[in-house]
Design a protein that fits this description.
heterotrimer; A: 206 residues; alpha/beta; two-stranded parallel ribbon; 8 helices; 6 strands; globular; C: 618 residues; mainly alpha; 3-stranded antiparallel β-sheet; two-stranded antiparallel sheet; 24 helices
């Protein structure tokens, strides 16, 4: 795990000494918190090919690294998914599609940014056409740095996401609902008037 | 009477468990064929639990009602199929009722998907109906051959006759019909090479494109049940049904694994190629089978 | 309640409606509804009675007889009830249209004429009412002018050919037996030779096959249905074409009798067997042609032809289950095809006459009652269990399978699948999918349109769940033909070789829906979203372009279109073309120039003199 560094919320600290074991076959946990366990072991990812990082995804979901044994498969439409992988640089044009896709996903949903470009612009830190801080426009639950991270990094992200879900810290979607006014303002500052209506009524935050 | 009510409650539950087991088993076996580990066999259960906890989006009243009607139709159909010696509603119309209640499931999904106003859904539904027309021609010929041979329209009667004599597949005049049914079985189940309706890469999962959350959970359960129904029908008509549920499920398991092997090896056909195939060899073979039975009866 | 009073009310009601229309349209509407309602009530009071009334009008010394029995009552109640519903529907549909008085006069006249047909006890009154019905249909089909005139012309020419065939049959009967009383004829005919019976059956059945649109005599139907005003198309398809069915039953089972008609014809080519095969062909081919149509009413019209095939197949097959199934299917088909045409009419009313399926869409949210009507109508047409179509089709299938005609059963069953494809295209292109911009302001249908749709939808479900109600009447009809009685229960048919128990299916579906609805409620409530919040791979949903209707079954079209060219219609059109050029040629004799006429006379006299001189015959 030394080659993939996952950073989540500021209050999320992961001690590399404690190895996470899969608790999928612990029946008591299923009976106590079925929703959390369900989300952990059935992370269906939207097959959204953002940028250069998508080349790392097909080896992960096929026979070489086999993400299906963790319950991670790609699905056809965002309506069926609960995991969004932003795997590369986000150009301004792609951001519109990303926002629309993110808003079409049902809640609860989790987002992971891959590569250095969503984190801080990465290689395109001084480009006029890319987004430097994705977190201003859609909420991101965790980042993995690298240019590109290896396919195993996706498993790192999944394992960290499990820990976050267990500790109720994977609340990007709740932040989106709470601070929708700010997110929408950021989106409108970039694009001008947006063609789609606000997802949540602005002016009331639940 | 009490036995009857218990049967009515138990048989859909049993079908549900076996159907979900088959779904999970299919993913595991496909994974092992691909030389990878694959998800656990209980993965569809995990998926359904996760889906039930998601807050989805609905396009209107018909969107909700359609998927409910579809799943209800599949559950109702289970009640008419004999599973070993469990058959709650055995004298309500026989084979014809089964053929027609089988229409409720795709109709429900078609209606609910239609309200989603997404052309992927409409294309998926049109493909589903075309492929259904494709396999119905040989399937009807095969069913009519069996009904003419055993001179009854009740499926319980057909199972009983096979239990007393021999499997219909091993009955020489019905051999051609059996071969035709085996050739169209992948089309009825919707596995490759006839996995045309869902086709995630082509039409973004067809009718399920706008389903999320509980809708997708019900659609997954409906898919599991339709797998169960397709295989159960074949086992009842050609492999003699069974005297008890355990032998029945064993026979279903063998058939399912063989179908999975075909699924693993073949790619997906286009709709018109599939219909051309279904209207050529299986139809000719089942037509020959019907003519043989008619000649014997004369 | 006497029969002549019934017919007097029917015809005078029609005329008075026209007169009242000249005074005020509201009075005419109200009076039209009152007359239809009165007819329904009077027919309902006639249930179970068998009476006969004789009139002597001094017409060639032939009495005109009116009689009622179970068969007549069955058809009469369907005619009057559906006529009432269509008149109620027309109240809103014809509002503001021109020549409304003429329309109501014709609708009520046709209503009365159909009642006259079923209640007539001798062939003369049958023929008179048949002709009244034919020409008033022609007048009403051509109501819209333009293409409707051509469609009406096609209809009336073919109908007249049928009437001529019927007239030939009647003349031959009169010449042989000196009476045209149906009851007397049925006893006298039973001693006739097989060849004569075959001739009679064929000649009468030509007339009824043209009316009932059995292939290959069906070509008038699609255009006539498509161009007629929609509430009248409902009456046309529901009951008018089924007068041909009444005729079939009359000639085959009332006059010739079940014992003789099932043995006519040499060896393998028995008369009823050939008729059954014609019915089977009529089921399969039009159902697939319907799949290719882009016009809503043409699609339903081709289905009307196809379902007529089921009825002909049922009654031609000649078993008690078959006859019951065929007659039951007549009633069921009437209910759901009227419902479907009324749904199309409701949509047409709000979208200013739009019939083209490729430009409609998404109207489910704007016109929910019309959608429910369309949905239940197509469920009945397909034969989903718990609808009435399933009950009648079940009877036909069972008899075909158990009597060992699997090919006919196959034709009937594959017809259902063709139906599923084409009516789903119909429902999808009209009500589902994306709503076009120009129909964003479409309002719901008015109440007088919703009422018949709701009543008919309810009837479909009622007769599907409780088929015993009409089956009792139909069983009585079957027994009166000499078939064995079916063991009719409230929920279906009890029998050793497979029973039908709709209560089980109904209870199972109800409980199943409840259980699944409860299961659905486990999850969180779904958020409603707008139509354009749709998956389009992250792109905005294009307006008016995100709708899949054109070439709905494109892969299938490429396979089946070469086999479905309408060469029968082309053949008839060619015949009509030859007749037209022949008449054109004959017309040229009359040049209007007197000199030519003098020349004709001189030439004729010259040829007469030449013949006399050469061969001296005189």
């Amino acid at each position: 795990m030394a080659y993939a560094y996952f950073s989540g919320r500021d209050d999320y600290h992961f001690d590399h000494q404690e190895i996470t074991h899969m608790d999928r076959n612990q029946l008591t946990k299923w009976l106590k918190t079925p929703v959390k366990m369900g989300h952990k072991y059935s992370l269906h990812a939207v097959y959204f090919c953002t940028g250069c990082g998508i080349i790392e995804v097909p080896p992960v979901i096929t026979a070489r690294w086999d993400a299906e044994r963790f319950g991670v498969i790609p699905v056809a439409t965002p309506r069926q998914a609960n995991l969004f992988l932003i795997t590369g640089y986000v150009s301004v044009k792609t951001l519109k599609a990303i926002i629309r896709t993110y808003e079409q996903m049902p809640e609860p949903k989790f987002t992971v940014g891959f590569g250095s470009c969503p984190v801080n612009g990465g290689m395109y830190w001084d480009s006029y056409n890319t987004i430097k801080h994705l977190d201003k426009y859609i909420p991101v639950d965790g980042w993995i740095a690298g240019c590109m991270p290896r396919p195993e990094a996706i498993f790192v992200a999944v394992v960290h996401l499990w820990t976050l879900i267990d500790k109720d810290m994977a609340d990007g979607y709740k932040r989106y609902r709470k601070d929708y006014k700010a997110y929408r303002a950021n989106q409108e500052q970039l694009f001008g008037t947006l063609e789609w209506p606000p997802l949540f009524p602005i002016g009331e935050s639940k | 009477m009490v036995m009857h009510v218990v049967e009515i409650i138990v048989s859909p539950l049993l079908a549900l468990i076996i159907g979900i087991f088959f779904l999970g088993l299919s993913r595991k076996i496909m994974a092992r064929i691909h030389w990878r580990y694959g998800p656990p066999i209980t993965q569809p259960v995990i998926d359904v639990i996760r889906l039930f906890s998601q807050k989805a989006f609905s396009h209107g009243m018909m969107f909700n009602l359609g998927i409910i009607l579809s799943l209800a139709g599949s559950f109702v159909l289970i009640l008419f199929l004999p599973m070993g010696n469990i058959c709650p509603l055995s004298n309500s119309g026989g084979m014809l009722v089964i053929l027609y209640v089988m229409l409720l499931a795709p109709l429900g999904i078609a209606l609910s998907g239609g309200e989603a106003a997404n052309p992927n859904v409409s294309i998926g539904i049109s493909r589903k109906l075309i492929i259904a027309l494709g396999y119905e021609v040989p399937l009807l010929l095969v069913l009519l051959t069996i009904m003419t041979r055993y001179h009854t329209i009740s499926i319980v009667e057909i199972v009983r006759i096979q239990q007393n004599t021999t499997w219909a597949l091993l009955d020489l005049p019905l051999l051609l019909s059996g071969i035709a049914y085996i050739l169209i079985l992948p089309a009825i189940l919707g596995v490759r090479p006839f996995e045309i309706v869902q086709a995630p890469q082509e039409i973004s999962s067809g009718p399920m494109a706008e389903y999320g959350g509980p809708f997708l959970a019900l659609a997954t359960i409906q898919h599991a049940l339709s797998l169960f129904i397709g295989i159960a029908l074949f086992v009842n008509l050609f492999l003699g049904g069974a005297g008890n549920p355990f032998t029945f499920f064993l026979k279903m398991l063998v058939v399912f694994i063989l179908v999975l092997f075909i699924n693993a090896a073949l790619p997906r056909l286009r709709v018109e190629q599939a219909v051309k195939y279904l209207w050529r060899w299986p139809t000719l073979i089942s037509l020959a089978g019907m003519i043989i039975i008619l000649i014997i009866r004369r | 309640m006497s029969l002549d009073l019934l017919l007097i009310v029917a015809f005078s009601g029609a005329l008075l409606t026209y007169v009242f229309g000249k005074i005020s349209s509201k009075m005419r509407n109200a009076f039209g509804v009152v007359v239809s309602l009165a007819l329904v009530v009077m027919v309902a009071l006639l249930y179970g009675q068998t009476e006969e009334k004789i009139f002597y009008f001094g017409f060639l010394n032939l009495p005109l007889i009116l009689r009622t029995n179970m068969l007549a009552w069955f058809f009469a109640i369907s005619v009057s009830a559906l006529g009432l519903l269509c008149i109620v529907f027309s109240l809103s549909y014809m509002k503001g249209r021109e020549r409304g008085d003429f329309y109501y006069l014709m609708m009520l006249l046709i209503n009365g004429a159909m009642l006259g047909i079923v209640f007539s006890g001798d062939l003369v009154s049958f023929f008179i009412f048949w002709e009244v019905m034919s020409w008033s249909t022609f007048l009403l089909i051509s109501y819209n002018r333009g293409k409707a005139l051509f469609a009406g012309m096609k209809y009336i020419i073919m109908s007249i050919l049928g009437s001529v065939a019927m007239l030939i049959g009647m003349l031959s009967l009169y010449a042989t037996y000196d009476t045209l009383n149906i009851v007397t004829l049925s006893t006298l005919i039973s001693s006739a030779s097989s060849g004569y019976l075959l001739f009679l059956s064929i000649i009468f059945c030509i007339a009824f096959a043209i009316k009932n649109a059995v292939m290959p005599l069906h070509t008038w139907l699609p255009e006539a249905y498509a161009e007629a005003p929609s509430p009248f198309t409902a009456v046309l398809s529901g009951m008018l074409t089924r007068m041909g069915m009444y005729g079939f039953l009359l000639i085959m089972y009332v006059m010739v009798g079940a014992a003789r008609v099932l043995n006519l014809g040499p060896g393998l080519f028995k008369f009823n067997y050939i008729l059954a095969w014609l019915g089977a062909v009529t089921i399969v081919i039009p159902t697939f042609i319907a799949m290719l149509q882009n016009d809503a009413k043409m699609l339903l019209a081709w289905h009307g032809i196809g379902q007529g095939g089921y009825m002909v197949l049922g009654i031609a097959f000649g078993t008690s289950l078959g006859v019951a199934g065929g007659i039951f299917h007549t009633l069921n088909h009437a209910i759901y095809i009227v419902l479907l045409f009324l749904s199309v009419a409701a949509v047409q009313y709000r979208t200013h006459g739009e019939r083209d399926l490729n430009s409609l869409g998404g109207l489910i949210k704007k016109m929910p009652i019309a959608f429910i009507g369309g949905l239940l109508g197509i469920s009945g047409l397909i034969g989903v269990p718990l609808t009435n179509g399933f009950a009648s089709k079940w009877l036909i299938y069972k008899t075909l399978i158990l009597e060992g005609s699997p090919f006919l059963a196959f034709a009937a069953l594959i017809g259902t699948w063709g139906t599923i494809l084409s009516v789903f295209k119909f429902l999808h292109n009209m009500f589902l999918g994306q709503l076009p911009e120009k129909y964003q302001d479409v309002k719901k249908s008015p109440f007088s349109m919703q009422l018949p749709i709701i009543i008919l939808s309810f009837a479909i479900l009622l007769f599907g769940i409780l088929p015993g109600i009409p089956l009792k009447v139909i069983n009585a009809i079957g027994v009166s033909f000499g078939f064995e009685s079916l063991n009719v229960t409230f929920w279906g048919i009890a029998s050793d070789t497979g029973a039908l128990n709709t209560i089980n299916i109904f209870a199972a579906v109800l409980v199943g829906c409840l259980v699944v609805a409860l299961l659905f409620k486990i999850g969180p409530k779904a958020t409603p979203i707008a139509q354009d919040d749709n998956y389009a791979a992250g792109a905005p949903v294009p307006k008016d372009k995100y709708h899949y209707t054109v070439d709905f079954y494109n892969p299938l079209y490429r396979m089946i279109t070469p086999y479905l060219k309408d060469f029968i219609d082309a053949f008839y059109m060619k015949l009509a073309g030859w007749t037209q050029s022949l008449s054109n040629g004959v017309r040229r004799i009359y040049t209007g120039y007197v000199g030519h006429y003098v020349m004709y006379i001189v030439l004729f006299l010259a040829s007469l003199i030449f013949i006399q001189l050469k061969w001296s015959p005189w």
